[in-house]
Amino acid sequence: MPNRYIGSATCKNCHQAVDAGDQFGHWQKSKHSQAFEVLASAEAKAYAKERGIENPQTDAKCLKCHETAFGAPKEDLHRSFKTGLGVQCETCHGPGELHRKARMAAAGAAGEGGGKYTAIPDDEVIKSPAPALCVECHNEDSPGYKPFCFHESRGEIRHLNPLKPRTDEERAALDSCNCAATCKCLKDAKDGKCTIPPKAPAAAGGGDEKKDEKK
Asked: For 7-59, what is each residue's pLDDT tens digit?
């Protein structure tokens, strides 16, 4: 059975509960959700023009990192998947069709009110994306790349583990950045600010990263 992209609007159906972290809402407020829109800005158009790109919103050199599943075969896209929504959930977590079906089946088997927080197999979805996945787009070879702190930036986009509902106090504590204590990335020689490694080994995938994952 193929595992197709279903789109963030479908993810929203199960991932918007506040007590479980409101993953969709968190994504919607992030720059990832605006990644396609920003290509229409005057700054993006000027930058593209300098590089011989007529329209950033249609050029493959831009869309490969500003839109989820760009270039994927049509059969890999579920009819619910919509383009033009930027870097959606599945860029980081992988195609979600099988995950959605598995969770619905688990909930159905458990009955009403049950199965909502059952454990998810590691091969069902990328739970905690590894830095190597970020580096596929955030690297020195990408147009407009600027060094940035991986841990600080990850704090802006990461969300709570949906399997572990939290209180307001717990969410506030987990949302605070402790970059200075946990940073393992490289140091920028210019200003000493830690940055994501420009060249990361290993293929993109779901590393465990227990110290950084919001649990």
From this structure: 999 999 999 988 777 899 989 999 999 999 999 999 999 999 999 999 999 99
Residue 81 CB burial class (10 angstroms; 0-12, 13-18, ≥19): buried
Residue 201 lies in a domain: no
For residues 8-18, one letter each, b for 16 or more C-beta atoms within 10 angstroms of the residue's C-beta and e for the rest, the string is bebbbebbbee
Residue 15 lies in a domain: yes
Q: What pTM, to 2 d.p., does this model score?
A: 0.76
CA–CA dist 26, 158 (Å, integer): 8
Instruction: State the Cα–Cα distance between residues 214 and 21, nearest whole angstrom.
Output: 10
Specify the residue for token string 């290993």: 202
User: Is 138 a member of any domain?
Assistant: yes
What CATH code is carried by the domain that includes residue 126?
1.10.1130
